[in-house]
Specification:
- By secondary structure, the chain is mainly α.
- It has a domain of 125 residues.
- It is built from 18 helices and no strands.
- Helix 6 runs parallel beside helix 8, helix 8 packs antiparallel against helix 15 and helix 12 packs across helix 18.
Length: 493
């Protein structure tokens, strides 16, 4: 290797690694231009000492000309934006190490203070009050009645034995009962637990969204069929069946509908993209993740979140604001950690496992919401199945009917707020509207973050709302539930 190469290496070592491809342009290049202009004739093009005046390590030799002993050059400090330096990988690692250390300390502190609180038997009692009464699983089984009802309505609409108006009426009735029936059971049946009830209501909400989509798509197909010319349609149908493409009304089978009911999507399609085979290793990895992360979440909730929440009740009772804030911040750490684990567990492990089993090809269940620089970007990217449904069956139809984007946006968040409140208030048998308020507050929050915070500041604002907003809602619900159920004398309406 020649001397010149060595000098170049040494220069690079001192300035830290530069992003590749920066060679000609950018702030680094500007610095080099200045350096070239200032350097005298004895100094190399990049402010370097000539190669022959260097020792084998590329440093200037002591016996060389005094001018050649220069060890300084025109250059910026790494933290100056002009330096063009952007490699902070070590600092990111430092953050991770600090995070692990500080959490390990918290973990130890928790163990010393409370001992081991993890209790798998207690988890069972969250789902069942009486071992002979299983209201939540029964509710889920009964949901099949509504699937069959929607299917029968579509079958009759396809052959024309029902008019569109009657069909619409029957679908609306079916969808309204889907929401009212489990709510009535959850409110009236004393043997159902809040957790069992939440899960049953989530299943019914998913069913509502799926059957809404099923009805919409079949209606669009009928409208398309009415417009299409019969002669060309007949020819096309034979071409499609040769390619394995399903056309309306051949999709109206129980097999097709139940595939959609179990598939990890809320938007119906006649021909879903399918993966060629079930990858056993991929499926096994996802199943192991499901097992591991389920245990981890239960353990963290029992060991870390529950005692922190219990300790928050007294400051709430005393209306001790500084202690309430301290409790809130304390709860924010385990709450956020559990939420992140939940995200991976549900959107990656569970959804992919179901998709793999069903050979469902579209695996875009989430996008890079963690890079959100605005609240809008977060909602567009964190829960893709719900976002897709909102766009396809709510937002775009509203905009197409002449409503402004703002109106459509607010409409979607109102509906979302309703469903969030529905799956929480009914199981807890209290109507406090915290979840509703939190969801509807996203509209002004999106405006504020978009208006006042950009780039990294916007990203930090999104993280902050996630980290602080959720434990606030958790504390509100737990506090109100506690007051209502365990301190009847101080309960307020
Ligand atoms: C409300 C919501 C749907 C808005 O989505 P958005 O992406 O910000 O909306 P945009 O205005 O950017 O438009 C989105 C789409 O509508 C289309 N669109 C816009 N104006 C249109 C018009 N006049 N006619 C037809 N389509 C139009 C856009 O082209 C775009 O289509 P594309 O996605 O195919 O590119 C989104 O914020 C959302 O999903 N919110 C609810 C999230 C939620 O509650 N999740 C619950 C998770 S637990």
């Amino acid at each position: 290797m020649g001397d010149r190469g060595g000098a170049g290496d040494s220069w690079r070592k001192r300035t830290g690694s530069r992003p590749s491809g920066q060679g000609g342009g950018g702030p680094g290049a500007a610095v080099e231009d200045v350096r070239d202009a200032v350097a005298g004739p004895d100094v190399g093009a990049r402010g370097e000492v000539p190669a022959q005046a260097r020792d084998k390590d590329g440093d200037a030799r002591v016996d060389s000309d005094p001018l050649e002993l220069r060890c300084h050059r025109l250059q910026d400090s790494l933290f100056s934006s002009n330096s063009g330096f952007s490699n902070y990988r070590g600092i990111l690692n430092w953050c991770v190490v600090m995070l692990i250390l500080s959490n390990a300390r918290l973990f130890l502190e928790n163990l010393i203070k409370y001992g081991i609180l993890v209790d798998p038997i207690q988890v069972v009692s969250l789902f069942l009050k009486d071992p002979y009464s299983w209201p939540a699983p029964c509710l889920v089984i009964v949901a099949n009645v509504f699937v069959v009802a929607a299917f029968q309505v579509e079958k009759h609409l396809a052959v024309g034995t029902l008019t569109e108006q009657v069909g619409l009426l029957l679908h609306v009735a079916n969808l309204v009962i889907i929401l009212c029936f489990p709510a009535a059971v959850a409110l009236l049946d004393k043997s159902i637990t809040p957790v069992g009830s939440v899960l049953a209501l989530i299943v019914y909400t998913i069913l509502f969204l799926k059957l809404f989509s099923y009805r919409d798509v079949n209606l669009w197909c009928r409208q398309h069929r009415a417009k299409a010319k019969t002669a060309s349609a007949g020819k096309k149908a034979s071409e499609d069946s040769a390619q394995g493409i399903v056309r309306y009304p051949d999709n109206l089978t129980y097999r097709d509908l139940y595939y959609f009911i179990f598939a990890p999507t809320l938007c119906y399609e006649l021909n879903f993209p399918r993966s060629p085979r079930i990858r056993k290793r991929f499926l096994l990895r996802r199943l192991l993740e499901i097992l591991f992360f389920t245990q981890l979440q239960v353990g963290l909730i029992q060991q870390w979140m529950v005692p922190t929440i219990q300790n928050s009740m007294k400051p709430f009772r005393d209306m001790d604001y500084s202690r309430i804030i301290e409790r809130l911040l304390k709860l924010a750490v385990p709450n956020h950690l559990i939420w992140l684990i939940f995200f991976y567990w549900f959107f990656h492990s569970c959804m992919n496992a179901v998709a793999e089993l069903m050979q469902f090809g579209d695996r875009e269940f989430y996008r890079d919401w963690w890079n959100s620089e605005s609240v809008t970007y977060f909602w567009q990217n964190w829960n893709i199945p719900v976002h897709k449904w909102c766009l396809r069956h709510f937002y775009k139809p509203l905009v197409r009917r002449g409503n402004s984007k703002w109106m459509a946006n607010t409409g979607v968040f109102l509906a979302s707020a309703f469903f969030h409140e529905y799956v929480l208030s009914i199981p807890l048998r209290m109507f406090r509207l915290w979840a509703f308020t939190a969801m509807i507050a996203q509209v002004p929050l999106a405006w504020i973050v978009g208006r006042f915070f950009q780039g990294n500041y916007g990203n930090a604002a999104v993280w902050l709302t996630l980290i602080i907003g959720q434990p606030m809602a958790v504390l509100m619900y737990v506090h109100d539930y506690y007051v209502l159920n365990y301190e009847p004398s101080t309960a307020y309406a």
